[in-house]
Amino acid sequence: MKNATITGWGKCMPPAVLTNDDISTFLDTNDEWIVTRTGMKERRISHVPISELAHVASVRALAAAGVDASDVDLIIFGSCTPDEIVPNSASLVQRLLGIEKAAAFDINTACTSGMYALSLASSLIRTGTARTALVIGAEVISNVQDWTDRNVAVLFGDGAAAFVLQETVEEEGVLADKLGCLAESRDILRAHGMGTRYIDGQTILGTVWWNFQGQEIFKKAVLGMCEASAQALEKAGLSTDQIDLVVPHQANLRIIDAVAKRFGVPAEKVFINIHKYGNMSSATTPVALVEAIEEGYVKPGMNILLPAFGAGLTYSAHIIRWGERVEPVGSAEIELPPCEKTGLELVREMMQRPRAGGPFKSINKS
Fold first, then answer.
1. Which of the following is catalytic: 111, 143, 192, 252?
2. Is 111 among the residues known to form the active site?
3. Percent of the chain scored above 70 by pLDDT?
4. 44-98 residue pLDDT tens
5. DSSP calls for 229-295
6. Rounded distance, CA 343 to CA 41, Å?
7. pLDDT tens string 125-165
8. What angle do CA 277, 104, 303 make, to 5 degrees?
9. Higher pLDDT, 363 or 69
10. Cβ neighbourhood burial of 215 (10 Å; 0-12, 13-18, 19+)
11. What are phi and psi of 141, to 5 degrees?
């Protein structure tokens, strides 16, 4: 029986850093307030479009796999902040990579987009539709951020990660997954201003405001991630103590701790990088897995659990059995264009953009 194993991995983090102290220069907050409530210290702000982040991450993943771009026959781009809706961002990455005829499409399930993409790519390889897939989780949240809202402005950052999946007969890759959505709660985490319903002559493109009900999101996130993880474990025929490493979605350190406590997973088995990057939406779990590999947490034959949740409220859990190789086959000499500005300077420029009626004051937010 065919499976889909991860043979390459790569990430691309924008160089500009936005610290908690930077945010305190334009919002009523401070480092202690943010850290105690979220576990976040800093996040990255992109100076380039999302397609460039995704391209660099993809080239690095292909090099790590030792795979030529021409061998890729499927590209799935997970994101809720694409450069364009039509055509999709996957096709742009395809063109940047010089791939002629691969299938390419985008998927948006908010923060779980990269993980949903992993499920889809694995399934399409198992059915024979594809043999070599490129899975991308990327986000440039800063461009659609409400930088006047402390509840959301402190949480999100930009970044990208990519994986190469290839056909194998070994019992590797996604052993089991569970995808779902708590649709009745979709309004508790919602970014208004993005989509055709706002083409009404009153909302300027780029004017986005958020519904973010933190306490309810916390409850639903823990519930969704735990239930999905339990079902994925059951499908895989594994118990919690057979999981060697947990790489959770990094949305809030309290959520991570609550999920680990409910499952009885010791802290040394949980990979955390939320302090460096915050929540990068669909890039979050993929970037965390890449860093877990790079930092030596991932060992050959490990069983890895990856629970996640996002707006919708979507949720997911994946159990991956890692293959024998944890070192990249090669590396890529590719970098983003230089960034001459700090994260704070980039954000202050975003805050000066024209918005309907000024900064979020005369918009009908119903």
1. 111
2. yes
3. 95
4. 999 999 999 999 999 999 999 999 999 999 999 999 999 988 999 999 999 999 9
5. HHHHHHHHT--GGG--EE----S-HHHHHHHHHHHT--GGGB---HHHH-B-GGGHHHHHHHHHHHT
6. 13
7. 999 999 999 999 999 999 989 899 998 999 999 999 999 99
8. 50
9. 69
10. exposed
11. -70, -30
* DSSP type of residue 24: T
Mean pLDDT of all residues in the chain?
Answer: 93
Tokens 């965390």, residue located: 288
Q: Which of 3, 249, 252, 318 is catalytic?
A: 249
What spatial distance separates the first Cα and last Cα of the chain, rounded to whole Å? 51
Phi-psi region of 324 (alpha: psi -120 to 50; beta: other; left: phi over 0): alpha
- The DSSP call for residue 337 is P
Q: CA-CA distance, 296 to 299, in Å (whole number)?
A: 7
Q: What is the pLDDT of residue 110?
A: 95
What single DSSP character describes residue 145? Answer: -
- 339 in catalytic set: no
Q: Is omega for the bond preceding 87 within 30 degrees of 0, making it cis?
A: yes
Q: How far apart (Å, rounded) are the C-alpha atoms in residues 345 and 343? A: 5
**198 pLDDT more than 70:** yes
pLDDT digits 0-9 by tens, 166-178: 999 999 999 999 9
- Judge contact between 94 and 55, C-beta under 8 A: no
Q: Which helix (H) or strand (E) holds 18?
A: strand 16-19
Residue 297 and residue 100 in contact, taking contact as beta carbons nearer than 8 Å: no
Identify whether the C-beta of residue 90 lies closer than 8 Å to the C-beta of residue 288: no
What does the alpha-carbon distance between residue 358 and residue 268 come to, in Å, rounded to a whole number? Answer: 48
Look at residues 124, 89, 126 and name the one whose alpha carbon lies nearest to residue 105.
89
Active site (annotated) includes residue 249: yes
Nearest residue to 267 via CA among 310, 297, 309: 297
